[in-house]
Amino acid sequence: MTTPNLFKPIKVGASQLSNRVVMAPLTRTRAEKHVPSDLAVEYYTQRASTAGTLIISEATYIHPSAGGHKGREGLVPGIWGDASIIAGWKKVIQGIHSKGSKIYIQLWDIGRVANYDVLQQTGHDLVGPSAIAQAGDEDGAKHVRALTIPEIKQKVQLYVDAAKNALEAGADGVEIHSANGYLPDQFIHWNSNHRTDEYGGSIENRSRFSLEIIDAVSAAIGADRVGVRFSPWTTFQDMEVNEEKSLPQFKYLFEQLEKRAKENEKNRLSYIHVIEPRADGISDAIPKQWQSNDPFRNIWTGDLIRAGGYNRETAIETAQEDDRTLIGFGRYFIANPDLVYRLENDLPLTHWDRPSFYTPGPHGYTDYPFHKKE
């Protein structure tokens, strides 16, 4: 029997992989004062057990000003220039590399969806592209303000610094989180971005912040170590979606990234990671007929990670469509540390325990069983 593409080797950017099953980024809130814990070392090392697997880390704050989660602030890892943070990541990455696998750290700034009081404790403001809070956030509506242009430039530099820190810790690359209603996505969307300067108004201007981050990080560490994640169809965290605006907006972003690669192959990103319309933030969704990522896939000719609601059958089928598609798994990777082995051998999959996704300790984190090999 011919080996399906899903289990064939592929080179993604600078990383040689043995298969096309990717561990998608998964927030687990087990850090200790923004430092990845020893439990995290065990968790990631378990999921790297099939050599040559690409792991994308949980979303990771680029700077203290990029965070602001109420009730779990220090439980989210960071990747700024703190020696203990870098040391924590080094242990995680050494564990992954000891299994022969690769890791990209996902770079995160949550923007306007942060909690004002939490940010104030570290001396930072609640900011977004405009002074517009997400729907229902009455406290945020009182405090959120628009970033100034110098502050936007500073944000871009923070992404660069974080990317350099990730590589210093030994990471194989970084993924820029430009999805799911966080800061770059807030600039992309017309309902959260009412700016009238070069960062708002037109499709080109709303795309500028994400593209500036991508360009600056690529220049700093090499485009072949940079991925980016988009969610064209998400309504998560008050992102607006409609056929007339969403399609041209995201087509432009894909066109710009393909144009850069065509002009100079050294500018081709390692990959673009796109969330399928059947996934909406942390929930499943029923996509409308016009919600499809095919128009973007037809523009971008580089490697593409597709994530959102895949099972073994649909993953094999989708990866078989071309020779550049990888499939991201989230919840199945939570519950199956040996997911690649199980998928390849068509073994039963453990179901995830949702109540333990964000709770402290090893339960639902490092205590899922491996399949007993014959």
TrEMBL record:
Q: Which domain of life is it from?
A: Eukaryota
Cofactor(s) it depends on: FMN
Query: Which intervals hold domain NADH:flavin oxidoreductase/NADH oxidase N-terminal?
Result: 5-349
> GO molecular function of the protein, one example?
FMN binding
Keywords linked to the UniProt accession: Flavoprotein, FMN
The answer to whether the entry has keyword Flavoprotein is yes
Family membership: Belongs to the NADH:flavin oxidoreductase/NADH oxidase family.
This protein's name: NADH:flavin oxidoreductase/NADH oxidase N-terminal domain-containing protein
